[in-house]
Write a structure and sequence with these properties.
Chain C: Pfam families: Fer2_3, Fer4_8. The structure holds three protein chains of three kinds. Chain A is mainly α. In chain A, about 75% of the residues lie in helices and about 0% in strands. The chains are: A mainly alpha, B alpha+beta, C alpha+beta.
C-alpha cells in the first residue's frame, strides 16, 4: 500500500475524509440557504427564479454539483465503513450503559441522523432537483418557485421537510465542531469561537430551511 | 564471615566508583548478544535495568505480575527525587547528599554504596529529562526544586504530587522501546516462584503464567531482582495490594542472605484506618508537614470537635518536644511521637488512633500575606481564611481532594486526622558493592535489596536509589560477572535443576489447593499483620518479640492446616497467588522479629523500648551493633546470622539530635 | 465502626475465561459501611463467596490509591462508577444509597478481551507505546537537564497529558471503543516537549498504525472519554494528534 492510501485508510484518515466532506457540505448549505432565503423577498419568486435558473445552467455550478454528489457519497460511504468498524470494535455490548452521563444523544446518533437526512434528501431531490434536470435536458421552461409552492401545499410534505431539517440541525450541532476537532484545528482562543458559531449555524440554517415550507403552506408567501 | 565480602573497591571514597567503572571487565558487543539476563520486576529499578541492559545489547527477559510494567508500585511515589545538582546554588554537593543519607539512615548504611548513589544522582535527572519526563519547571524554563525532610538544601525534583508516576512512565517507555525492537521479551502477569541454581550460580527462574496457571522455565546467564519491598507483611501498608516478598524470599531460601529485615519505615502522615474492612492505607505526602501543625487535645478522650477545643487546651507535642525541628522532624521520630500520644490516651477520631494535622494557623497566615499583597493591611479573620484557603488549595489541592474522597470529611474546614503507617522497608536481600547477592549471578536492585538507606530512609531517596541501581549501577557491575560467562552456552531447561525447581513449586501449589480448610488467605494475612504491627511495629521489646515469634510459628502451622484456596491451578486464580505471597510473608515475619530481637539497640526505624534515652529518644549502640545483620536460611524457623561490619572512614558517627 | 448498615444488590458479570460466555449474577450484600471503597466492598463479597465454597470474583486492582491504573469495572453504566475524576479504588460506598442495585461489568472492547470475570487484557496499550511512545535516548546519552529550558506552560501541558494512568476507561466508555484519548495523551506529551521533536512525526504515524491494528474503533468526537477519564485528560490532545498525524501523512516526506 502506498503511503497516501495508507493515510486514507487509517482511522484518522477516514475521519479526515468525513470532516473534509462534512465541511464541504456545510459550505454548500450556506449557498443553498442563501438562495432559498430569496423567497422571503416575497416577490412571487422572481429573484429566486433568476438565481435558481443560474444555478441550474451555469457550467461552473454544474461541475461543482458533481463535486457535491461525490462529497455526499464519500461522506456516506466513509460513514458506513466507520460505523461497521466501530460496531466491530465492541462485539459484546454492555448490559447497562449510562451514556447520557458523558455525552450528548445527538453526538452518539450521527449515523441515525445521517440516515434520516439521507431519506429526506431522496425525497427532496425527487421534488426539486429531478424536475430541474429534466427541464434542462429537455430545454423546457421550468418555474422552480411555482413548483415549490405546489409541493408545499401537502401537509405531510411540510412535516417531512421540517423533520428533515431538524435532523440536519442536530447533525450539524455535533458535526460542525467535530469536523474542526478532526482536522486538528484546536486552539485555546479560537475553539470556543468555532463552537459558538457551530451552535448558531446549526440553529439558524435549519430554521431558515424550515420556514420555507411552513410559510408557503400557511400562505405567507405565494 | 568469609561469605560476606562486600567487594568494596579499594581507594579513596570519592574515587572508588570512577576507578571501578574504568577497570571493570567489559563484554564485547557480539558476546552480549548471546548473553541472556532475566529481570524480575518492572518498577523503577527493574524497568530501568531491563531497558538499559537491552540497550547495551544483552538479551533480556523481563517479568512482572501486573498486567503491564507501568503498574509497578513505584508509580505511587508522590513527593520527589533527590539529586545533588546544586541548581539552587544553596551549597549542595555530592558529598552533602552522601552525608545526609548516611546520617538520615542513622549510621547503618555502607559508605561506598551511598557515595556512589550520590554521584550518579545527577545523571538520573539528566536521563529522565531527556526521556521527556515532565518535571516541574520555573517560568524561566529551568527545573524547579523543593525541600524535603532531613536536609538543609533544596535538591528534590518533582512532578506535582506524581513524581513516581512520571519517572516510572519514563522507564516504562524506555523498556517498551526495547520490547518493540525485540530486544526485551516482556512477560506480564507472570510471577516468579523460584530461582534455579546450577553449580552454585543463578541460572534461571520458574515463573507461573497467572492467566493459564502454566509453570514456565526460563534460563538466564544472570538473574536480576527488582521486586520491591515487603511492607505488606503488615497487611495494612501504603504498598500496593500485590506488592510481595515472594521472589526475594524464594532466593533467600535458595541461599541468598536477607539483611536487616527489621528496618521498616513507618510514615507519620497517613490516613487512619476506618474499620476492619480496610485493605490498604493511603499516604498523605510529607510535604504537608511544611504547613500543617500536629496536635492532640490536652485532655484525655476529649469528645469535643477539634474546632471547639481552644488553643490553650491543645498539645502541639512535636513543637513541644522538638522545638528546633518542630513538625519537621524525620519520619521515624514523628511516627513514634504520634504513637506515644495515642497510647497514652490522647488519640482522636472514632478509633482514637489518630492525631490532628491542622492547617488553620498557616491558612490564616497565608491569607494575611495575600490580603497585604492586595493592599488590605488589616483584614478580618474571614478574609484571611478565604484568601489563605486558596493558597493551600494551590499547594496541596490534589492531596486535600484525596483526603476528602477517602474520609468523606472536608479538610479545608476540619483538621486532617492522620496516623503512621508502614511505608517502606530498608531491609532486603543482602548485596555486595556490585549489587550481587550471596548467590553468584543473582543480583538485587531497588527497594528489594537491603539498600543504601541504613536504618531509616530520607524522603525522596527511594526513587533515586531505584533508578541509580537500574540505569547506572547494575548495567556496569553485571558486566564484571557476565564477562566470565561468555563461554557458557544457554542451559536447556530440561536440566534436572529446572525440573526439580518446577516440581517443588508444583508441590507447593498442589498443597495449597489440597488443604481445603475453613479460612481465607486474607484471614491469615490480617492476623499476621496484626501480630507484626503490635509487636514488631513502631516500638518493639524483648517480651513482645519473643511472643510474636511464637505466635507467628503457630500461625504458620494453622495456615498450612486450615487455609482455603478456591479454584484450580490451571486458571487465573488470584487467591492462589495470594496464598503463595502470604505463606512467604509469614516466614519473613518470623525473621523480622528474630532480627529485631537480635538488634539490642534503637536505630532509625527500629526502636527497642529497652534502648532509649531518658527523654524517650532512640539510643544506638555503635560499639556492638554497627553491622549489617545478614541472615542465612537454614530451614524452617532456622536462620544463621552473618555480620558485615560497617566502617566509617569518612563520616564521624554521631547521635542524631532534633531538639 | 467496621460494619455499616447498607444493603445492596450486586449484579456482577461472571465469565470463566476468555473463551466461555458470561452472564450477570446477582449477589446480596448487607452491613456494608459507607466508608468502604468499592473494591473493599468486593473484598467483603469475595470473603463471603470463599466461605460459602464458591469462586470469588476476579477483578484487577493493585495500588488502591488511584494511580496505577489497574482497577477497572464498568459500574452502573459508567467506567469507574458515577463519580467524576476518581478510579474505582477511590470510589467509596457513600456514593451509593442503601437498597441500591449496582451493575458491574468488565471493560468491553474487542481490543480488551475479558480474561476472567471483571479482568480484561489491556496489553494492546503496551503495544501502542512500544510502537513509538518514547524518546529514543539510551541511558548515558543525556545532556545536562537544564541545558534545555522548557517554557513552564509547555511543561505543565505535557505533564497534564502525561498524567494518564492507562486504565482504559476512555476505551470502555467510548461508543466506538476508540483508544484515541490514551494514544493522543502520550503523543501530546512528547509533541509538546523539545525532547520529543526529532521523532515527532514518525511517532504519531507508528502509534496510530498500531492503534488501528489492535482493533480499537474510530473516534467520533462524542467527548465521552474526556468526561469519564479519572485523570481529566483533555480532548485537546486528540486534536493535537490529528493535526500531527495529518501533517505527518500529507505534508512530511518521511515515511514510516
Amino acid at each position: 500500500m502506498s503511503s497516501l492510501s495508507k493515510a486514507f485508510t487509517s482511522s484518522i484518515g477516514k475521519k479526515f475524509v468525513m470532516g473534509l466532506t462534512g465541511l464541504f457540505l456545510i459550505s454548500f448549505l450556506i449557498v443553498h440557504v442563501s438562495i432559498n432565503a430569496l423567497i422571503f423577498l416575497n416577490d412571487s419568486g422572481e429573484t429566486f427564479n433568476v438565481a435558481a435558473d443560474f444555478m441550474g445552467h451555469n457550467i461552473v455550478i454544474r461541475i461543482m454539483e458533481v463535486g457535491l454528489f461525490v462529497g455526499i457519497i464519500l461522506h456516506i460511504v466513509q460513514a458506513i465503513i466507520l460505523t461497521s468498524q466501530n460496531n466491530a470494535a465492541r462485539p459484546e455490548k454492555y448490559a447497562y450503559n449510562k451514556a447520557s452521563a458523558n455525552s450528548k444523544w445527538y453526538s452518539r446518533s450521527m449515523g441515525l441522523l445521517g440516515t434520516l437526512i439521507l431519506m429526506f434528501l431522496v425525497l427532496h431531490l425527487y421534488h426539486f432537483w429531478w424536475p430541474t434536470k429534466v427541464a434542462v435536458y429537455t430545454h423546457q421552461e421550468h418555474n422552480t418557485f411555482q413548483n415549490i409552492v405546489m409541493i408545499f401545499q401537502e401537509p405531510w410534505v411540510v412535516v417531512v421537510y421540517v423533520l428533515g431539517v431538524i435532523s440536519l440541525g442536530y447533525h450539524l450541532l455535533h458535526g460542525f465542531q467535530s469536523a474542526f476537532q478532526t482536522m486538528g484545528w484546536n486552539h485555546k482562543k479560537w475553539t470556543p469561537v468555532v463552537k459558538t458559531v457551530g451552535i448558531w449555524f446549526s440553529i439558524i440554517v435549519p430554521i431558515i430551511f424550515a420556514l420555507m415550507p411552513i410559510s408557503i403552506y400557511l400562505g405567507w408567501i405565494g | 564471615m568469609s561469605k560476606l565480602n562486600s567487594n568494596i573497591p579499594a581507594g579513596e571514597l570519592t574515587q572508588k566508583w570512577t576507578k571501578y567503572k574504568s577497570s571493570v571487565p567489559l563484554v564485547n558487543p557480539a558476546n552480549k548478544r548471546s548473553l541472556e539476563v532475566i529481570v524480575v520486576g518492572s518498577g523503577l529499578a527493574g524497568a530501568s535495568a531491563a531497558a538499559t541492559l537491552a540497550e547495551m545489547g544483552y538479551k533480556v527477559k523481563c517479568f512482572c505480575f501486573q498486567d503491564s510494567p507501568r503498574r509497578a508500585h513505584s508509580i505511587a511515589a508522590q513527593g520527589g527525587i533527590n539529586a545533588a545538582k546544586n541548581y539552587q546554588n544553596d551549597g549542595d554537593s555530592t558529598y552533602r547528599l552522601f552525608y545526609d543519607t548516611i546520617k538520615g539512615g542513622d549510621y547503618r548504611a555502607r559508605e561506598a554504596n551511598v557515595h556512589r548513589l550520590a554521584e550518579v544522582s545527577a545523571n538520573i535527572i539528566d536521563q529522565c529529562v531527556a526521556q521527556g519526563v515532565p518535571l516541574a519547571r520555573e517560568y524561566g524554563g529551568l527545573l524547579d526544586n523543593r525541600s524535603f525532610g532531613g536536609t538543609q538544601v533544596q535538591r528534590t525534583f518533582y512532578a506535582a504530587g506524581q513524581t513516581g508516576q512520571q519517572l516510572l512512565l519514563g522507564a516504562y517507555s524506555a523498556l517498551e522501546r526495547q520490547v518493540g525492537m525485540g530486544k526485551v521479551q516482556m512477560y506480564t502477569r507472570h510471577e516468579m516462584l523460584d530461582v534455579v541454581v546450577i553449580d552454585g550460580k543463578a541460572r534461571g527462574i520458574i515463573a507461573r503464567n497467572l492467566i493459564t496457571g502454566e509453570l514456565e522455565r526460563h534460563f538466564g546467564h544472570a538473574v536480576v531482582l527488582g521486586t520491591g519491598g515487603y511492607g505488606n507483611v503488615f497487611y495494612l501498608s501504603t504498598n500496593a495490594m500485590g506488592s510481595n516478598v515472594t521472589a526475594a524470599w524464594k532466593v533467600h531460601k535458595k541461599g541468598a542472605f536477607f539483611a536487616n529485615p527489621c528496618y521498616t519505615q513507618i510514615h507519620p502522615t497517613c490516613i487512619p484506618v476506618s474499620g476492619d474492612h480496610q485493605s490498604k492505607l493511603t499516604l498523605m505526602s510529607e510535604s504537608l508537614r511544611n504547613d500543617g501543625r500536629i496536635w492532640v487535645p490536652k485532655k484525655k478522650d476529649d469528645p469535643r470537635k477539634p474546632s471547639d477545643i481552644p488553643e490553650d487546651e491543645r498539645d502541639y507535642y512535636l513543637e513541644r518536644r522538638y522545638p528546633a525541628f518542630g513538625n519537621l522532624v524525620p519520619r521515624d521520630v514523628a511516627s513514634r511521637a504520634a504513637k506515644e500520644r495515642c497510647d497514652a490516651g490522647y488519640g482522636v477520631g472514632a478509633s482514637k488512633l489518630a492525631v490532628y494535622l491542622d492547617f488553620k494557623a498557616n491558612t490564616e497566615r497565608y491569607g494575611r500575606i495575600e490580603a497585604s499583597k492586595a493592599g488590605n493591611h488589616n483584614p478580618d479573620k474571614e478574609t484571611c481564611m478565604r484568601l489563605g484557603t486558596a493558597v493551600i488549595k494551590e499547594k496541596y489541592g490534589n492531596l486535600f481532594d484525596m483526603y476528602a474522597q477517602i474520609t468523606g470529611e472536608n479538610p479545608y474546614e476540619t483538621p486532617m486526622r492522620i496516623y503512621p503507617a508502614v511505608h517502606y522497608t530498608m531491609g532486603g536481600v543482602w548485596v555486595d558493592y556490585d549489587l550481587m547477592t550471596t548467590i553468584p549471578g543473582l543480583y538485587c536492585t531497588g527497594e528489594a535489596n537491603f539498600s543504601d538507606h541504613g536504618a531509616n530512609r530520607l524522603g525522596a531517596s527511594a526513587l533515586m536509589q531505584g533508578l541509580a541501581d537500574g540505569y547506572f549501577v547494575l548495567p556496569y557491575t553485571i558486566g564484571s560477572y557476565l564477562s566470565k560467562e561468555i563461554a557458557t552456552k544457554p542451559i536447556p531447561t530440561d536440566h534436572p535443576a529446572f525440573v526439580e525447581a518446577e516440581n517443588e513449586v508444583k508441590a507447593t501449589i498442589d498443597k495449597f489447593l489440597s488443604i481445603n480448610g475453613t479460612k481465607s488467605v486474607d484471614h491469615f494475612h490480617k492476623r499476621l499483620g496484626h501480630i507484626m504491627w503490635e509487636k514488631c511495629g513502631m516500638a518493639r521489646n524483648r517480651e513482645g518479640l519473643t511472643q510474636a515469634i511464637k505466635e507467628i510459628q503457630d500461625l504458620r502451622k494453622e495456615f498450612w492446616a486450615d487455609v482455603k484456596v478456591p479454584g484450580s491451578a490451571d486458571e487465573f486464580n488470584p487467591e492462589l497467588e495470594k496464598a503463595h505471597r502470604v505463606a512467604d510473608f509469614i516466614e519473613l515475619g518470623e525473621l523480622m522479629c528474630i532480627d529485631a530481637l537480635n538488634r539490642e539497640e534503637s536505630c532509625g526505624g527500629h526502636f527497642r523500648e529497652e534502648h532509649q534515652t531518658e527523654e524517650g529518644e532512640a539510643k544506638r549502640d555503635d560499639e556492638n551493633f554497627a553491622y549489617v545483620a545478614a541472615w542465612e536460611y537454614k530451614g524452617v524457623s532456622e536462620f544463621e546470622l552473618h555480620k558485615e561490619e560497617l566502617n566509617y572512614e569518612n563520616i564521624k558517627v554521631a547521635q542524631r539530635n532534633y531538639k | 465502626m467496621s460494619t455499616g448498615n447498607m444493603n445492596l444488590t450486586l449484579q456482577v458479570w461472571r465469565q470463566k475465561n476468555s473463551k466461555s460466555a458470561g452472564k450477570l449474577v446477582d449477589y446480596k450484600l448487607s452491613d456494608i459501611s459507607p466508608d468502604m471503597s468499592f473494591l473493599e466492598m468486593f473484598d467483603v463479597l469475595n470473603e463471603q463467596l470463599i466461605t460459602k465454597g464458591e469462586e470469588p470474583v476476579v477483578f484487577d486492582h493493585d495500588c488502591r490509591e488511584g494511580i496505577c491504573g489497574m482497577c477497572s469495572m464498568f459500574i452502573n453504566g459508567q467506567p469507574h462508577g458515577p463519580k467524576d475524576l476518581v478510579t474505582t479504588c477511590q470510589l467509596h460506598m457513600r456514593s451509593f444509597k442503601d437498597g441500591d442495585t449496582i451493575v458491574v461489568e468488565p471493560w468491553r472492547a474487542k481490543a480488551f478481551p475479558v480474561i476472567k470475570d471483571l479482568a480484561v487484557d489491556r496489553s494492546a496499550f503496551d503495544r501502542v507505546i512500544a510502537a513509538g511512545g518514547f524518546v529514543s535516548v539510551n541511558t548515558g546519552n543525556a545532556q545536562d537537564a537544564n541545558n534545555l529550558p522548557i517554557p513552564k506552560s509547555k511543561a505543565d501541558a505535557a505533564f497534564e497529558a502525561a498524567a494518564c494512568i492507562g486504565c482504559g476507561a476512555c476505551v470502555a466508555t467510548c461508543k466506538n471503543a476508540s483508544a484515541m484519548l490514551f494514544v493522543s495523551a502520550k503523543i501530546s506529551q512528547l509533541a509538546l516537549l523539545p525532547q520529543g521533536q526529532p521523532e515527532r512525526y514518525r511517532r504519531v504515524q507508528s502509534m496510530v498504525a498500531q492503534m488501528d491494528e489492535e482493533g480499537f474503533g474510530n473516534c467520533t468526537n462524542t467527548g465521552a472519554c474526556e468526561a469519564e477519564c479519572p485523570k481529566g485528560i483533555s480532548l485537546e490532545n486528540i486534536a493535537r494528534m490529528n493535526r500531527d498525524y495529518l501533517s505527518a501523512k500529507f505534508i512530511s516526506e518521511e515515511e514510516v
